[in-house]
C-alpha cells in the first residue's frame, strides 16, 4: 500500500490551489479526467476560444490576481467593465432588473413600483421565493426574479433557502431603486471581470505551475474511502493518507466514505452549455444577456467576441435542467438556434463551429436541510482528516476566487 500525507481529490481550481500552497511536498492530486481544470477547461475550435461555460474572474483580492498574473507572463489579460442586460419583450433592461424598473413600459413600471412600496408589509420570508416577494413585491418578482431563477435552478424556488445565493444576490431597497432612476448605479460584486486571451484554462495553468507534474495523477478516480484507517482506494491502487482534501460533489464524497446520510438533502440542477461560433459579428457592447421569458430555451447567453473584439460572433448559451431530466443535445441545439434568431441575436448568421457540455452538477440547491446535513457530515469527515471544499464540496454558491481563498486558507492550517 502506498502512503501520502496529503491526498487531494480533484485537479480543478480548488484542488490545484490546495496543492500549490501546501508547505508539505508529500502530496498527491487525484483527477478522474485525463486533463486538469475541472469545469474551467477551455476548448479551441475553428479559431474560436471557449470555456466549458462562462468562467470570468472577479477579483476582490488584488494579491491573488497579482500572484496569478505573475505566472501568466505571455497572456493578454483584459480587465473589462461588464455590460449586462435583461431581454424583456422588445426592450433591453440594464441589469440588475430591480434597480432599473424605470426602463420598463410605464404601466409595468408603475405596477412594479407600487408592489415594491407595499412589499415590506409581507413579513419574514421562510424560503427563497417568499424572500423575492417580501423584498421586491409581486411585479418585480414575477416579471424577472422568479421566472429567471426557475429557469436557472430548474426547481421550485420555495424549496431553496432564503439566502441561497448569499452575497451574490443583487439586493436593493426602495431608496436604492428610486435613486437609480436618476443616477445609475448598477454596481455588483462582478462589476468588472478579468479574462485571458487563451481562455479560463490559463488561470488553471497558472496555479498548476506551482504543482509538481509528478504529483498529479490523471485518469485516476477515487472509488472508496476507509475513514477509520484513512485509506483511499482508487481505480489503480490503495493509498493511506493523513489528510484528504476533496472538491468532489459532497454527496458523492460521503457515499464513497460509506456514511449514512439523507439523500433528499442534496439536490442540484444540471446545465447544458452550447459554445457557438458564427461567420460574422453580432451585437456589440454587451457581454451577457439574461432571458426570463419561459418561451426561450436558454436563461443566459454570453459574448466571448466582445471581450477581445474579434470579428466573428462567439457565444456561450446556457440551459437549465432538473438533475434527473433527460438532455437531448441535438434537439436542444435546434431549439437554441431558432430562439437566437427569434430574439434577433442572430440575423441569418451561419453557424461554423459548435461545442456542447453538460455540467452535472451545475448549481447546487441550498436548503435548510442541505445546510444542516452538510454541517453534520463535515464534522464526521474532519474527525477522520477529510476536508471537503469548493463550490460542490462546500455545497454552496461561490466565485472562482472564493475557491482559491478557501483552499489557500485550509492548507495554511495544515502542519507540514
UniProtKB/TrEMBL annotation:
Listed Pfam families: NAD_binding_8 (PF13450)
Domain of life: Bacteria
SUPFAM superfamilies, sorted: Nucleotide-binding domain (SSF51971)
PANTHER family: UDP-GALACTOPYRANOSE MUTASE
Protein name: NAD(P)-binding protein
Organism from which the protein derives: Pendulispora rubella
Amino acid at each position: 500500500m502506498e502512503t501520502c500525507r496529503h491526498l487531494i481529490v480533484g485537479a480543478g481550481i480548488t484542488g490545484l490551489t490546495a496543492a500549490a500552497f501546501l508547505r508539505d511536498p508529500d502530496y498527491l492530486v487525484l483527477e478522474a479526467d485525463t486533463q486538469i481544470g475541472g469545469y474551467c477547461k477551455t476548448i479551441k475550435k475553428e479559431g474560436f476560444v471557449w470555456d466549458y461555460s462562462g468562467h470570468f474572474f472577479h477579483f476582490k483580492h488584488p494579491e491573488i490576481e497579482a500572484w496569478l498574473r505573475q505566472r501568466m507572463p505571455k497572456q493578454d489579460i483584459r480587465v473589462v467593465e461588464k455590460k449586462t442586460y435583461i431581454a424583456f419583450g422588445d426592450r433591453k433592461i440594464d441589469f440588475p432588473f430591480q434597480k432599473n424598473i424605470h426602463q420598463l413600459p410605464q404601466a409595468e413600471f408603475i405596477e412594479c413600483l407600487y408592489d415594491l412600496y407595499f412589499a415590506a408589509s409581507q413579513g419574514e420570508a421562510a424560503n427563497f421565493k417568499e424572500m423575492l416577494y417580501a423584498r421586491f413585491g409581486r411585479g418585480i418578482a414575477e416579471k424577472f426574479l422568479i421566472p429567471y431563477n426557475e429557469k436557472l435552478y430548474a426547481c421550485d424556488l420555495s424549496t431553496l433557502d432564503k439566502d441561497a445565493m448569499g452575497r451574490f444576490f443583487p439586493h436593493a431597497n426602495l431608496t436604492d431603486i428610486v435613486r437609480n432612476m436618476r443616477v445609475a448605479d448598477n454596481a455588483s460584486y462582478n462589476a468588472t471581470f478579468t479574462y485571458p486571451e487563451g481562455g479560463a484554462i490559463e488561470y488553471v495553468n497558472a496555479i498548476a505551475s506551482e504543482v509538481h507534474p509528478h504529483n498529479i495523477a490523471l485518469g485516476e478516480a477515487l472509488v472508496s474511502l476507509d475513514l477509520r484507517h484513512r485509506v483511499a482506494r482508487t481505480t489503480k491502487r490503495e493509498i493511506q493518507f493523513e489528510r484528504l482534501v476533496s472538491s468532489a460533489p459532497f454527496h458523492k464524497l460521503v457515499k464513497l466514505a460509506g456514511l449514512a446520510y439523507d439523500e433528499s438533502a442534496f439536490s442540484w440542477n444540471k446545465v447544458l452549455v452550447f459554445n457557438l461560433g458564427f461567420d460574422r459579428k453580432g451585437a456589440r457592447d454587451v457581454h451577457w444577456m439574461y432571458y426570463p421569458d419561459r418561451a426561450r430555451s436558454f436563461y443566459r447567453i454570453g459574448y466571448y467576441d466582445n471581450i477581445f473584439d474579434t470579428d466573428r460572433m462567439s457565444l456561450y448559451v446556457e440551459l437549465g435542467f432538473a438533475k434527473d431530466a433527460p438532455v437531448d443535445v441535438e434537439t436542444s441545439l435546434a431549439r437554441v438556434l431558432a430562439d437566437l434568431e427569434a430574439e434577433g441575436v442572430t440575423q441569418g448568421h451561419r453557424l461554423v463551429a459548435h461545442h456542447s457540455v453538460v455540467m452535472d452538477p451545475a448549481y447546487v440547491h441550498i436548503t435548510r436541510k442541505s445546510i444542516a446535513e452538510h454541517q453534520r457530515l463535515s464534522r464526521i469527515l474532519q474527525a477522520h482528516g477529510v476536508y471537503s471544499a469548493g463550490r460542490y464540496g462546500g455545497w454552496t454558491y461561490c466565485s472562482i476566487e472564493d475557491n482559491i481563498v478557501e483552499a489557500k486558507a485550509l492548507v495554511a492550517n495544515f502542519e507540514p
